[in-house]
C-alpha cells in the first residue's frame, strides 16, 4: 500500500554546489549496492541506536539527519519515535534514492534533501535535533566548521545536536578513509572543540564505543538562551 505522503527528494543545491565533490558513504560510488550489507555486518546499527538513545527525540519533534546516506539513522529515529518529523540530508543522489525506496517499503514518512552539511534544510531556530552518525569524517575542515555554525542557526533554544563519529584513525578501515580521518581532525576532542568554537556552550563527549570499525565518540551539545 502506498504511503499517503509519497517520498520525494528535494534538490536544494545551488548551481555552484553541482560541481562540489563529496566522499560517498561506501568510499566509492560503485560500492553503494553493498553499503547496507556492510553496515549490518559491521554492527553499525548499534551505533545508530545509541545515537538515537542519547538524542532523546520526543513525540512530534523535528530532526535533521546530516549525512543520512541510505537512511539508516533516520529509520532508527522513526522506530524509536514514529511521530517525529525527520529529514535526511545528503549530497549523494543515489544514496537518497535508495533511502526513498526503503522508506516506501516501510511505509514511513521521511523527507529527503539533496544538499551539503553546511546548509541544513531548516529555517532559523526551527529544529529540535540535529543528528549525524559516521558522516563528519567525510567532510573537510571548512565544511565541518560551516556545518557546526549552521546547526547553531537551525536549532531552537533547548535544541540538541548529537554526533557519533570516529575518535581517531586507528582501525578506521580502508587506507583512503584513514587518510581522510587523519586530515579531518576528528580524533580526541576534535568534535567537542568544533561545536564549542561554533558557539555551543556545553559541548561534551557523552559516551564512547570501542567498536570493531574503530573507536567511536558520541558528542552532544544543547543550544541555550
TrEMBL record:
InterPro entries: Methyltransf_25 (IPR041698), SAM-dependent_MTases_sf (IPR029063). Residues 63-159 form the Methyltransferase domain. Signal peptide: none annotated. CDD domains: AdoMet_MTases. It comes from the Bacteria. This is Methyltransferase domain-containing protein. It comes from Paractinoplanes durhamensis. The lineage of its organism: Bacteria, Bacillati, Actinomycetota, Actinomycetes, Micromonosporales.
